[in-house]
Structures are given as structure tokens and as C-alpha cells.
């Protein structure tokens, strides 16, 4: 029954992993575009390495994007604005002014019918010429322009801007006319009426109308500059792809890929795209299954890697669909950086390769995209060998920017063959890319909380002796605290030599004995000389108290929400060994009784990593060498050899993936470090 449950559990795990990969393949299949692809790859100023190319159909030669953009910018710059003329303003204001003046004619002798008509006619002429709200010199739309279009009753008329009135100049013209006609009566007119009230802008800028006209003008800009007829030779094999040939080839590629649905089997496109996605994911599956089984079997880790690949693919697909920003501003290097921080360099590089191939399939300039991002990703991984200072990520971002810039300029030199033709402005996108890489810092914290990861930054924070648990250990079990500090220092030195995570080994060693805070006096390092509570206890009870520091330590760690990787040090630092001291005493005292080893055995499990195995080895050796009466190279070496071999014989290191070479290095390092710790000090002479 137990075997059946084990087998079912294994199958269930395989089923979940398979389901996870199938879901990833499905999402990537939806994200990767399924248009037909042009079969030839080519670069400007490089040889045409394919067979002689003949035009398969008639197609237009498209202008370069920069040329089209320049022509459209020119259209925008030369665009003549349209103003909508409101004829009702002139009629209404002239009528109001005429009525006002007629009402004042009895009070002002000079305001006769002839003068009234002259003033009203001047106002009509002003409105006929056109009045705008502000002076053309200060109007941003009319600045530096000489003419504009006036639209009145669906009739468009070109007007010189100098002939227009502003509110100020229109009032001045009307006021000057009234003064010249009325002479002395002008002041009386001003006292009875305000001529400015009859001046109102009758020309208004029509935002919607102008936008429509501008759109028409922009649409009139042709994107093509000629045609290539079917059967016409485009380029010979071996010919250099000149800028003109490059334009023709790009036009053929564009025309070919836009003929989607014409004489194309959609099922073949779908099948091809599915095979490409499966092939990329199969590479990742095989790598993880064969070389990173611990990641492959851990669903949280696997989910994170696949999620990052899907998110990165989605980001690029979204940007390319909406075309609102250059794709090189996307910090592609964040993917390998995060995987390097949470896993290892090889996994980061392999995931980088798979993602580059997936996105490179639909990214423009496929070779350039894959080339730039692969090398920039490699540099990011190699430059970020550690992350325990904020400056490390800043320097990594700087190296990524330099890599992108140098490689981009090199490719531009090959493609353009002219230093003046290099698109220096594109370096701004790489600078933005480098700045966005700094987002990795908050992302590290977020993903740690979501997926239970532990970065070097977190390990360093947890290694601070002012952390609550370590402070508790230092105050309640000072001897154990000093022992833990010694173990941490030795473990860090050993891991530096054999490879691994020294920050993890150091932090794990600090916390491995926190369970001793429950009953610290029962452990010899916390006892006063000659005073041990074990003297009044049975051997089984003593063994139980000693063994309980593991289970209590685990509960204490979980209560304080320590990461699982640190809890592993607590549960594995004694593995499944026995409390040998009390077990031997019990057997000696009860020779006639068959002692049950389970009463004296630690619950385990055995160490599963190099770091936990190293802490187990050092934990016993440090305590044993401290108890030696005579400490010299021979006695310390003998203890090290004996205790390491005992753990090997007992199978405690079977799951820790330590090689014989690494075990030898561990023993040599411990001997060297312990000799430095226990070296004989000189005796100072006494003053006579």
C-alpha cells in the first residue's frame, strides 16, 4: 500500500509538471504571431548568401521608414491652418452698434446719419477682413506663417495673415475712425458707450477640422517609390546588399508577409508555429530535468521560470503590436538577472537563450535582436556574481548599457558603412533599458514574498545579530551563540573553497541551534563548571531533551517566519544520527536490556545540500576539538578524519552531492582554520 501511494504521488507530481508546461506552451502559442515568414535573412552591406532572387510577384518598393517620417514631418511643418469664420458675429455686432449710435444721435451733434453709417461700415470691413482672438505674432499656430485658410459657408479662401485684425488692432481701427469723424464729440461718445464691446473674434481655429485636413495631407504621402514586376531579377548570389537593394528586399519581405491568407494553408502555419514553441520549451524541459532536477521537481521554482518567460514574451508582443516605443527600451536583461539571483548562472543563461529564440522569431531584425540581447544577457549574468550591495546592480546596468551601445554601433558600421549614418539617437533607448534594469531590486523583494525565494540580500539581513531570534539566542544561551558564530565563520570559509552560497551557509549556521533557547542550561556550552541538570536525569530523558532542540528550533523558526532554506539547517544539522553519549551510557548501564535506538535518534532528515552538509560536519568537529585537552595539528586532524568518516559510514552525506575532492578540501580547510583558532600563544614575561 505504501509503495502504491508513493507511486501515485510521483505520478501526480509528473502530471502537475506536465500540465504546467502544457499551459506555458499554450500561452506562448497565443503570444507568438502566426503570420507567414519570409524565408531569407539579409543585412545591409553584407553579401547575398542565397540563390539568385527573382521577383515572385508584382510588388511596390516601400520607402525607408525614416524617409516616410521625414516627409510627414515636412507636411506637418508646412501645413497651412484652417480658421472657421462665423458670419453671424459681424451681422449681430454691426446691428447692435448701429442701434446704439442711433440712440445717442440726439445727444451728440456730430453723430448724424452719415457718420453713424461710416462707423458701422468700418466695423463691417473689420469683420470682413477677419478678427482673431490674439495677435498673429503671439499665436503659436500662426507664428512664422504668412497665410492661412478661412472657411466660410463651405467656401475656402486663402488669406494673408498680415491682413487680419486682432481684438486690440480691430478696436484701435474702429476707435480711430470714430475720432476722425466725431472730433470733439468723440470724448462724449466714449462716456456713453464702449466701442470694445462690439469687437469680437469671428475667426476660430477648428481643432477637429484641422486634424481632418492634416490627416488627409499625411495620408497623401506615398509610402512607395516604384514597382518591381514579377520575373524581374532582384539580386544575384554573392552581390553586396546596397541600400537600394536592401530597400527592395525589405519591400519584398513586407509584401510577402502581408499576403497572409492568399494561397496559404492556415493549418500549416499553425502547425509550424506550434512545433517552434514546443521545440524551445523542450530544450528548457530537458535542461532542467537532466541538470537541475531540484528546480524541475520544485513546482514553485518551475512556475517562476516559466512565468518570467511568458511575461517577457508578452511584453515584447504588446509593444510590437501597439508600436508606441522602441523594443530595445524593454529591460530584457532583467530575466537572466532575476534567475541568476534566485537560482544559478547556467539556468539564467539557458532561460535567456530560450526566451531570445522565442521573441527573436517575431521581433524585427531577428539576427540583430537575438545577437544584442544574448550578449547583453551574458554580460549581466557574469557581472552580477553577487548581490549584497546596492552598487552591484547599478554596475550591472552600466555594463549592459555599454554592451548594447558597442554592439549596436558595430552593427551599424557594418550595415551603413558610414560613421555619419549611424543612428546615435537609438542609444537613448539603451540608456532607458539600463535604467529600467534597476527595477530588479524591488522585484526581488516582491518575488521573494510571492514564491518564497531567498536572495543574498535577505540572507545578509537575516545574518544581522540584532535579528530577534539571534538576539534571543545571545541573551538566553550565550555559549550556544558563540558556538554558532564559530560554526558560521568556519562554514563560510569552507563554502568559499568548495563552491556554493557562503551567505546561505553563514546564515544557516547562525540559526541551526536556536532550539537550545528552550532549555539552554541542558547544553554543556551554557553550563557553569560542574553543574549539569543531566546528573539527576535518566539517560533517555536526557537524550529526549537534547534531541528536542531540533524540533523546538523548527517550531520557533516557523513561528518567526524564517525561510525554508534556513529551517533546513535546523532540521538537518544532526541528520538521523544518535545522541551517542547518552546512548552509550544507557547501554553500558543496562547491558541485559536491548536499547531501542529510536529513543536516542534525531528525527532528521539528512542534509540535502552542500551548505547543510558542511554545517553538520563542522558542528560536530568544532565541539569535539574544543573539548580536546591537547590541541595540536595531529589531534585536530585525527578528530576531523574520524568524525567525517563516521558521517560518511553512517550515510549522513549520501544526499548532499559532495564529491570526494570536496570532502578532502573540507577537511584541509577545517584543519587550517582550527589550527589558527587554537594556536599556542606566547607567554608574556613577568616584571621583576
Condensed summary:
The chain crosses the membrane at residues 12-32, 267-290, 302-319, 325-343, 348-364, 394-414, 429-447. Residues 476-633 form the HD/PDEase domain. The chain is mainly alpha-helical and 688 residues long.
Mean pLDDT: 84
Helix content: 55-70%
SS-based structural class? Answer: mainly alpha
Overall number of strands: 10
Return Rg in Å: 42 Å
Shape: elongated
**Spatial strand arrangement across the major sheet:** 6-5-3-8
Q: Uncertain segments of ≥5 residues (pLDDT<50)?
A: none
What's the domain count? 3
Cα-to-Cα separation, first versus last residue: 83 Å
Largest sheet: 4 strands, mixed
Beta-strand content estimate: 5-15%
Tally of helical runs: 27
Question: Could you walk me through the main structural features you see in this protein, from its secondary elements to its overall organization?
Answer:
With 688 residues, this protein is mostly helical. The chain folds into three domains: 2-36 and 265-451, no CATH class; 76-218, no CATH class; 456-677, Hypothetical protein af1432, CATH 1.10.3210. It is built from 27 helices and ten strands. The protein has helices at residues 2-31, 65-78, 87-104, 113-129, 167-182, 185-192, 207-219, 243-258, 266-291, 293-296, 299-322, 334-342, 345-360, 366-383, 390-416, 427-437, 440-451, 456-462, 468-476, 478-498, 502-511, 539-559, 564-572, 580-589, 610-626, 633-649, 660-677, and strands at 53-54, 59-62, 82-85, 131-132, 147-152, 155-160, 165-166, 203-205, 224-228, 233-235. The strands form four sheets. Strands 6-5-3-8 form a four-stranded mixed sheet. A two-stranded antiparallel sheet has the order 1-10. A two-stranded antiparallel sheet has the order 2-9. A hairpin with a 2-residue loop joins strand 5 and strand 6 (155-160). Helix 9 (266-291) runs antiparallel to helix 13 (345-360). The longest helix is centred in the N-terminal third of the chain and has 30 residues, at 2-31. The two termini are 83 Å apart. The mean pLDDT is 84.
Amino acid at each position: 500500500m505504501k509503495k502504491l501511494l508513493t507511486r501515485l504521488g510521483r505520478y501526480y507530481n509528473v502530471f502537475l509538471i506536465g500540465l504546467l508546461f502544457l499551459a506555458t506552451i499554450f500561452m506562448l502559442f497565443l503570444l507568438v504571431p502566426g503570420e507567414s515568414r519570409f524565408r531569407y535573412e539579409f543585412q545591409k552591406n553584407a553579401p547575398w548568401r542565397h540563390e539568385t532572387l527573382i521577383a515572385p510577384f508584382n510588388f511596390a518598393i516601400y520607402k525607408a521608414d525614416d524617409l516616410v517620417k521625414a516627409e510627414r514631418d515636412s507636411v506637418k511643418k508646412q501645413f497651412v491652418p484652417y480658421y472657421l469664420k462665423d458670419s453671424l458675429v459681424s451681422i449681430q455686432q454691426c446691428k447692435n452698434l448701429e442701434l446704439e449710435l442711433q440712440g445717442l444721435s440726439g445727444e451728440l451733434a456730430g453723430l448724424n446719419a452719415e457718420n453713424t453709417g461710416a462707423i458701422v461700415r468700418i466695423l463691417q470691413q473689420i469683420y470682413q477682413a477677419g478678427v482673431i482672438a490674439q495677435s498673429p505674432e503671439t499665436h503659436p499656430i500662426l507664428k512664422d506663417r504668412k497665410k492661412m485658410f478661412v472657411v466660410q459657408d463651405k467656401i475656402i479662401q486663402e488669406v494673408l495673415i498680415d491682413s487680419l485684425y486682432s481684438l486690440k488692432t480691430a478696436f484701435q481701427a474702429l476707435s480711430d475712425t470714430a475720432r476722425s469723424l466725431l472730433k470733439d464729440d468723440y470724448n462724449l461718445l466714449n462716456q456713453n458707450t464702449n466701442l470694445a464691446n462690439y469687437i469680437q473674434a469671428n475667426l476660430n481655429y477648428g481643432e477637429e477640422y484641422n486634424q481632418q485636413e492634416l490627416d488627409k495631407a499625411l495620408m497623401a504621402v506615398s509610402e512607395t517609390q516604384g514597382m518591381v514586376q514579377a520575373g524581374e531579377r532582384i539580386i544575384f548570389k554573392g552581390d553586396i546588399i546596397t541600400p537600394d537593394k536592401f530597400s527592395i528586399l525589405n519591400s519584398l519581405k513586407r509584401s510577402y508577409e502581408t499576403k497572409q491568407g492568399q494561397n496559404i494553408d492556415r493549418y500549416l502555419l499553425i502547425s509550424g508555429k506550434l512545433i517552434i514553441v514546443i521545440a524551445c520549451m523542450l530544450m528548457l524541459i530537458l535542461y532542467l530535468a537532466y541538470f537541475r532536477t531540484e528546480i524541475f521537481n520544485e513546482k514553485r521554482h518551475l512556475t517562476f521560470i516559466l512565468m518570467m518567460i511568458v511575461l517577457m514574451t508578452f511584453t515584447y508582443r504588446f509593444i510590437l503590436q501597439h508600436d508606441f516605443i522602441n523594443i530595445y527600451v524593454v529591460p530584457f536583461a532583467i530575466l537572466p538577472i532575476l534567475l541568476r539571483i534566485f537560482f544559478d548562472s547556467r539556468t539564467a543563461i539557458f532561460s535567456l537563450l530560450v526566451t531570445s529564440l522565442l521573441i527573436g522569431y517575431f521581433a524585427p531584425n531577428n539576427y540583430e535582436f537575438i545577437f544584442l540581447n544574448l550578449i547583453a544577457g551574458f554580460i549581466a549574468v557574469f557581472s552580477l556574481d553577487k548581490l549584497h550591495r546596492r552598487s552591484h546592480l547599478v554596475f550591472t546596468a552600466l555594463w549592459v548599457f555599454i554592451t548594447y551601445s558597442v554592439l549596436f554601433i558595430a552593427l551599424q558600421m557594418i550595415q551603413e558603412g558610414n560613421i555619419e549614418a549611424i543612428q546615435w539617437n537609438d542609444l537613448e533607448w539603451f540608456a532607458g533599458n539600463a535604467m529600467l534594469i534597476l527595477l530588479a531590486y524591488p522585484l526581488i523583494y516582491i518575488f521573494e514574498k510571492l514564491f518564497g525565494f531567498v536572495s543574498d540580500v535577505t540572507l545578509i539581513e537575516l545574518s544581522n545579530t540584532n535579528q530577534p531570534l539571534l538576539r534571543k539566542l545571545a541573551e538566553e544561551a550565550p555559549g550556544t551563540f558563540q558556538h554558532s558564530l564559530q560554526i558560521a565563520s568556519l562554514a563560510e570559509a569552507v563554502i568559499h573553497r568548495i563552491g556554493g552560497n557562503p551567505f546561505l551557509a553563514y546564515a544557516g549556521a547562525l540559526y541551526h541551534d536556536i532550539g537550545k533557547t528552550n532549555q539552554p542550561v541542558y547544553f554543556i556550552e551554557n553550563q557553569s563548571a560542574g553543574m549539569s541538570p543531566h546528573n539527576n536525569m535518566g539517560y533517555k530523558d536526557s537524550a529526549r531533551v537534547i534531541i528536542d532542540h531540533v524540533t523546538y528550533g523548527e517550531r520557533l523558526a516557523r513561528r518567526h517566519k524564517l525561510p525554508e532554506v534556513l529551517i533546513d539547517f535546523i532540521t538537518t544539522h544532526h541528520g538521523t544520527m544518535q545522541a551517542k553519549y547518552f546512548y552509550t551510557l544507557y547501554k553500558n548501564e543496562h547491558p541485559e536490556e536491548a536499547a531501542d535506538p529510536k529513543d536516542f535518534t534525531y528525527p532528521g532528515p539528512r542534509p540535502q545540500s552542500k551548505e547543510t552538509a558542511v554545517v553538520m560536519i563542522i558542528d560536530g568537529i568544532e565541539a569535539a576539538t574544543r573539548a580536546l585537552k591537547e590541541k595540536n595539528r595531529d589531534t585536530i586532524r585525527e578528530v576531523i578524519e574520524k568524525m567525517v568518516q563516521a558521517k560518511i559510514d553512517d550515510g549522513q552525506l549520501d544526499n548532499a552531492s559532495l564529491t570526494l575532492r570536496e570532502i578532502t578540501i573540507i577537511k584541509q580547510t577545517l584543519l587550517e582554520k582550527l589550527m589558527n583558532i587554537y594556536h599556542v600563544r606566547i607567554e608574556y614575561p613577568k616584571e621583576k
